[in-house]
Every structure is written in C-alpha cells, then in structure tokens.
Amino acid sequence: MRFIDIKFSQRNAKPGDCISGVVVVETDKAFECNRVILKLKGKERTEMGSGDSRITDDVIHLQGKIELCEATEIPIGKSEFPFKFKLDNELPPTYSGYGGFIEYSAEAVVEMDWAIDPKMTRRFRVLPIQPAYIPEADGYNPMNKDLDVLHVELLSDILRMKQGLPVRFMVDEHSRVNGVRLEIRRKEHIKCRSRNGTHDVVITKKFIPLTTGDFHRWREEIMGKGWQRVPFESKLVRTSYFLKVVLEMKWELDPNVSFKIRISGEKPEETVNDILESIELDLGFI
User: Fold this and answer.
1) For residues 205 and 221, is the Cβ–Cβ distance under 8 A?
2) pLDDT at residue 280, rounded to an integer
3) Lesser CB count within 10 Å: N end or C end of the chain?
4) Residue 73: phi, psi to the nearest 5?
5) What is the rounded distance in angstroms from the CA atom of residue 94 to the CA atom of residue 42?
6) What is the dihedral of CA 30, 31, 36, 38, to 10 degrees?
7) What is the DSSP letter of 214?
8) Contact criterion met (CB below 8 Å) for 256 and 199
9) Can you name the residues that pair with 64 across neighbouring β-strands?
10) Considering the chain, what is the average pLDDT of its residues?
11) Residue 11 parent element (H or E)
C-alpha cells in the first residue's frame, strides 16, 4: 500500500503571500524512488458555444516544479517532505463563472522506475486583493431613475463592503403591484479567442412586498452589507457589479432599472501624525 497526500498550512492566500505545507507519503513496505516533487499549476480557461462549435481559450498563470527529495528509499510508515512557495504579486484570484474559470493546484508525485508513480492533487485558492477606498464626491448628487410607477434613487454608486449600499425607492399606486425586488448582480465579461461574451447572475437579492399603505412614500433598504466579493480583470475574464431594481407585477412584464456600482474597501485608519497634520493645515500652520 502506497499513499500520498498534500497538507497545506493554509489553502487560501493572497498574491505575494507564501503557501507552505508537507507532502505525506505512507507505505507498508519500503521502496526506492527517483525523487519526490511538487508541481504547481494555475490555469485560466474560457469557453463559448457547444457541440462541434464549442471553442476554448487558455492562459497559464502559474507553472513550476519544486524538488522535495532526490533519489532515496521511502521507509515503512509515514514520511513528510516540507515545502514552501511564494505566489506572484500579479496573480488573478480563483474564480468560477458561467463562461470561464481560474484555478490553482499543487500535484505531489513520487517518481519511480517500473511502477505507476503515486500522486495526489490538491487545489488552493488565490484570494482577491481588497479594493482601494473610494472617497465620496463632494456635495449632494443623487442618481435617479424613474419609470411610470417606479422611482429609484441612489445617494451614491459606491457599495462599501461593511456598510452596504443604501437604496431608496417609491412606487405609485397600482392595483397589480406585488412588491419590489432588489438584486445585486455580477456581470461576467469573457474573451474566447476572437469572440467576446457577457453573462450576469444574481449574487444577492431582497424582496419587499407592498400593500396599499406603502404607495407614494419613499422607502430605504440596505443591500450588500458585509460584502465580500471583489471585481477583477485577468487576461480572459473581467467582472463588474450592478444593482437591479424590479417592480414585480401581476400578469404584466416587470419594469426594472439598473445602476452600475463600484466596490470600495474600508477607509484607512488615520494615525496620530495624520490628525495633527490635518489640524495644522486647518489652522494655517502648513
């Protein structure tokens, strides 16, 4: 019996971080091997069409090999071979979408003569880099979109990851209204050889039923509070996010409006020096 496994100290890491762990080889009979290696792979793929018209496009983001042990005898029991590698600073995050994916893996191989090489593959995740903080624009400049009976207002198009995105709406009285559905959707833009495609999917949604007393008055809801997803752009895939507000109607097409939204990281904490410098600037000392 020969068994091989990969145990990561951490399976999730950001670009520029190090990933470490051990390759474990277990056997009930000692055997000779040429070497023990760890192969690193990172691949991006998009696809379009189906059947005979299906096409794919690939980009390699990570490809490497780490030699963990030269020719040796693997003894009875468990043997561990430690490893450590650093991720490139420019790696796109792990991703799985409608028309494409980005995945990363490590494959441990015990190379042998005259026998099938024991091997094991484990995936690890490359996390997205957190977005930069986007300051609010000066002044009051709301964005409004109006349909016949639906009125929507955003005070800002910035979704802050902890606070979420405030959405205001008002519905004029209508006998066939069921309620309002708020959605934050991810739009996926892909390249596949010479072709381009888009697809969007709901990430989170909220339904607000409306009764007679709810018409002709503004309501506010918070969408995306505790948000964790980050837009990114790689060689073949780009993602963006938008808010969709839908008025659900009985026996009619549901009118809707959409707003592109931006994702903002948290505001950096001010240091004591930053605060003192700001005070000096306000007082005219600088």
Assistant:
1) no
2) 55
3) N
4) -100, 125
5) 9
6) -80
7) G
8) no
9) 40
10) 92
11) none
* Structural contact between residues 204 and 187, judged by C-beta atoms closer than 8 angstroms: no
Strand-pairing partners, residue 246, are 181, 256
CB 249 within 8 A of CB 181: no
Give me 97's structure tokens. Answer: 């979408």
Per the CB < 8 A criterion, the answer to whether 57 and 45 are in contact is yes
Instruction: Give every CB contact of residue 281 below 8 A, 6+ residues apart in sequence.
Output: none
pLDDT digits (tens, 9 = 90+) for 150-200: 999 999 999 999 999 999 999 998 778 999 999 999 999 999 999 999 999
Percent of the chain with pLDDT over 70: 93
Residue 48, both tokens: 């379009």
Q: Helix, strand or coil for residue 273?
A: helix
Per-residue pLDDT tens digits for 210-266: 988 899 999 999 999 999 999 999 999 999 999 999 999 988 889 999 999 999 998
Report how far residue 227's alpha carbon sits from residue 264's, in angstroms, rounded to the nearest whole number: 10
Q: Which domains occur in the chain, in start order? A: 2-126 (2.60.40.640), 143-264 (2.60.40.640)
Each as own residue / partner, the long-range contacts of residues 54-60 (CB below 8 Å, 24 or more positions apart, any chain) are 55/192, 55/193, 55/195, 56/192, 57/191, 57/192, 57/193, 57/236, 59/234, 59/235, 59/236
The tokens for 239 are: 């993602």
DSSP label at 233?
Answer: B
**Whole-angstrom Cα distance, residue 83 to residue 281?**
52
pLDDT in tens, 53-81: 999 999 999 999 999 999 999 999 999 99
First to last CA, the chain: 75
